[in-house]
Design brief:
Blueprint (H helix, E strand, L loop, with lengths): L13 E3 L5 E3 L7 E6 L6 H16 L6 E7 L3 H9 L12 E4 L4 H5 L6 H10 L5 H14 L12 E5 L5 E6 L9 H8 L5 H8 L1 H7 L14 H15 L9
Parallel strand pairs: 3-4, 4-5
Antiparallel strand pairs: 1-2, 3-6, 6-7
């Protein structure tokens, strides 16, 4: 059970972008922030999520009122290769701040979860995804191959942080293909409480009475060999002609 959630101060951090420039959460005080933790810059699902969010960001009126920070466990070189160069754009032109945390320090502070079953579940849902999603992932894998880092068990997490640095809403994915729904972002920007926030506050006293705050375990970037092999085999199976239609 996680201890960091709605109503808590968002932990500050200092991470660098692909240009070597340091960024902190404190720099965004007075602004609304969406802080998103992605699995890897080499992950096709993460790239598709960035692709979708970038498209929405340009079209929606609230975009100018929201600072988006995307954190990857990848090195700055991988962020360049998979996120920026693949889109023929630079860090300055990209609408989000892209940060590198290869030591997973911030992941630990924000209690980003790791689950092997969540990894597999997301992959198995891919054939039932939209034609756009299937085409994007298929093209990404054909172009870049399957990087070992993308086979890890980290699950995405999103935190909506208000102008005072307080977590107003948070979303911890149960599968690698999940991110916070757009409706909850809209509610946050409009000053409304999402159903998740209402539910969280309604159960606050119950949660406080039953929550056991366990000691945080140190997180490493190593991947269990058994999990890695099973994940790779599952991904290859999903992308095969039998399980992953070429139809768009």
């Amino acid at each position: 059970m996680t201890s960091l959630g709605i109503g808590d101060p968002a932990p500050d951090f200092s991470l660098v972008d692909s240009d070597g420039v340091s960024h902190s959460l404190a720099e965004h005080k007075g602004r609304k922030v969406m802080l998103s933790f992605y699995r890897s810059a080499a992950c096709p699902f993460c790239n598709y999520a960035i692709y979708q969010l970038k498209g929405r960001y340009k079209k929606l009126a609230w975009a100018s009122n929201l600072d988006v920070i995307a954190v990857f466990q990848s090195t700055t070189e991988k962020i360049d290769n998979f996120i920026l160069n693949s889109r023929d754009t630079t860090e300055a032109e990209f609408p989000f701040v892209l940060l590198s945390d290869p030591e997973l320090i911030t992941y630990s502070e924000y209690e980003v979860s790791e689950k092997f079953l969540g990894n597999i579940a997301g992959m198995l849902r891919t054939p039932r995804g939209s034609p756009e999603c299937k085409k994007y992932i298929r093209t990404f894998v054909r172009t870049h191959g399957i990087d070992k880092e993308a086979l890890g068990n980290i699950l995405p997490s999103d935190f909506l942080i208000d102008e005072n640095g307080i977590i107003a809403d948070c979303f911890r994915a149960k599968g690698i293909d999940e991110h916070i729904p757009l409706e909850r972002i809209n509610a946050f920007l409009l000053g409304q409480k999402s159903e998740k926030v209402v539910e969280s506050r309604r159960n606050l006293f119950k949660a406080l009475s039953t929550k056991n705050i366990s000691q945080k375990k140190p997180r490493g970037k190593t991947l269990e060999s058994g999990d890695s092999k099973r994940t790779l085999l599952t991904f290859q199976k999903v992308l095969s002609k039998k399980h992953f239609s070429e139809e768009t």
